[in-house]
Amino acid sequence: MKILLPFVLLAVIIRSTNGATCDECAATYVTDKAAVASGTDAEKCTAAKKFAMCLMSASGTGCTSGANIPATQFASGGTINTDMAAVTSCTFDALCSGCQMAYQTAVLARTTSTTSKQKCLEAFTYTQCVEASASTQFACDGTSTKATMDTNSLATAKADCPYSSAVGVKSSVVVMAIALILSCVKF
After folding, report:
1. Same domain, yes or no: 78 and 147
2. 138 three-state secondary structure
3. Which residues form the domain of 32?
4. Same structural domain for residues 113 and 26?
């Protein structure tokens, strides 16, 4: 039980750091921004990047309408764009602004009529974008490397694309095993 306690606390901290909705991300950012208002540019940049990363995994309230839509936040005049422009040396790499933001925008635009084929296409477009990024680029959080994002984007593609699931791999292995057995049997 004592061993599990730190993991439970970590889960609570992570949940409170990464808002589940775009509105929660924005509310957390308001608090973080106020806390570093008189801080260094690096602290302000870190707070803005934390907000951006939160938006990249958010869904629900505020993500499809209102001021907290990720695409709106990143656009000219958006809170993230404006706040990052106000501090020295605070920019996003194309891995964030091009790949992560484009994918999250696509995910948030999904409806109940979005087909598995469309989800798969979006996921593999995201994976391709990440793979084409320079190895020196970082994700929206400013710390996750391209190598980490390669792994994450492939996991995302596997989750979004039912055609690439483990069931397909298992089925292929079974077919290959049967073919091998049949090739050894003489009729």
Report:
1. no
2. strand
3. 1-91
4. no
Q: List, for residues 94-142, the tens digit of each pLDDT value.
A: 899 889 989 988 888 889 999 989 999 999 999 999 999 999 999 988 8
Structure tokens that stand for 120 in this block: 């798969």
Which helix or strand (DSSP H or E) is residue 168 part of?
Answer: helix 166-184
Q: State the amino acid at position 103 in one-letter form.
A: Y
Q: Which two tokens stand for residue 69?
A: 């839509």
Cβ(178)–Cβ(141) below 8 Å: no
Return the exposure string of 115-139: e unless at least 16 CB atoms fall within 10 Å of the residue's CB, then b: eeeebbebbbebbebbeebeeebbb
Q: Between 16 and 168, where is the model more confident?
A: 168
Q: What is the pTM of this model?
A: 0.67
Q: Which two tokens stand for residue 146?
A: 């391209």
Q: How many CB atoms lie within 10 A of CB 98?
A: 16
